[in-house]
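Cont'd.
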Amino acid sequence: MTCIKKIKSNIDMWLENYFENKGTYNKKIYEAMNYSLNIGGKRIRPLLMILTYSMYKDNYKEIIPVAGAVEMIHTYSLIHDDLPCMDNDDLRRGKPTNHKVFGEAIALLAGDGLLSEAMNVIINYCSYKDIEAIEACKVIFNAAGTEGMVGGQTVDILSENKEISKEELQYMHKKKTGAIIKSSIIAGAILGKAPKKDINDLSLYGEKLGLAFQIRDDILDVIGTTEELGKQAKKDEIDEKTNYITVYGLEKCQYLCEKLTDECIDILNKIPKDTSKLKEITNTLLYRKK
Amino acid sequence: MTCIKKIKSNIDMWLENYFENKGTYNKKIYEAMNYSLNIGGKRIRPLLMILTYSMYKDNYKEIIPVAGAVEMIHTYSLIHDDLPCMDNDDLRRGKPTNHKVFGEAIALLAGDGLLSEAMNVIINYCSYKDIEAIEACKVIFNAAGTEGMVGGQTVDILSENKEISKEELQYMHKKKTGAIIKSSIIAGAILGKAPKKDINDLSLYGEKLGLAFQIRDDILDVIGTTEELGKQAKKDEIDEKTNYITVYGLEKCQYLCEKLTDECIDILNKIPKDTSKLKEITNTLLYRKK
């Protein structure tokens, strides 16, 4: 299996070339989309998709467009989340947020454009592939929508300045961040034509990883500095939002995160395939600093 | 062929039922999406798709989901266009705009949710249909994105408070409004398995109709009242935007609109099918009051 660094560099290359030389009178929108898409993202979702796929197939370059489309969806959600009417953030990945550079209107349209382009990429991909392609894309788009990311974001917005139950908090986290992470893994498995049993196991793995990822995010929000994170630290406290820290405290969160990661590794151990790369990225995510 | 009123009522019913009983903690987002989706739209795009399809097939109910998805795309674009950072409109279809009722953050997410849901509808539709479904959906999503609606909207935003050339104005209008109208017609023809020659003719018809539609919009913006239009009149003048009226004057615009409509009818006359319903809606659009 190819190393993670090499895969990431291929994803980066695909995304960097994607909007090159596009546009006429509308050139500005490609500039704005490109800015956020290629500002140094970790490419976690595409990597998870490709690493899962690579447990079953050798030719991972085949699915780079689908992986790239998921990164476009993730990027659109960041641009919209950062807007003044949402989280009102000035900094993302250590750089000014999209609307700080291009203005709110263009940033809004850049988000819309990235989501639309993700759909274009995927529908083009589906048009020359078999039924697995459509099934995988269904999973992704379901996770992006109102029963996934947009739904979680809605609950997040509604929860500002009020206390929410543990159930609602878990719902919010699972949907807001977890859904796309989980769907990237499931899509990778479906595209790799993994057996049904493995898809179920990987689905559970994805769910736990997504939750651990978001709890780690909450932890970093508290223990990290703005400089380290490349985005505003202590943001939830400022916005008076309920998160895992406010409900369970820092220590319990660290324990929960480690426990979930252990459970992830246990699931991967059960799958009769080379899961070493997925284990590597799982551990990296748990101990990440930003 | 079934009458236009009956088709519209079936589209309305599908859209009204679509979000019923959906959601748990995220219920608010469905409320917001539903509000704008079912506030009295004319359903022009789905009607054009179905009327075109019905020239070739009898079972138009088959494609209502695709037609409904296009209306979702159209509605998302209206919600985002109305936001304060875009056109900042308080009134749409005689009712308060989405953000006036639900706040900016939820309105933004409702737009994102509608675009995502359109994708869900379409990818589900494609999963049990033949290759024409994917081809038709490609046309729609291409028209919705940065080479279509989002691109036109970008040029529109960038043109505020400055003069633009006739070429740029035409580009903007073709993309902003025309692209989705044209794609609805082409998608209807592809789904109906129309012969290649007809698809080409209908494509030209769609292009001219889209342009006539937008010029009529510019005319109405000037001659209509806020009450008649159900939205702010004289909006382009207020925002100091270049439009067909500022470039060609009212009289020339009325002439252009009639000329384009005549050309539309001429094209329809050449197609060896019953084009009477498309002619009916073409004339209605030219003389519409809102």
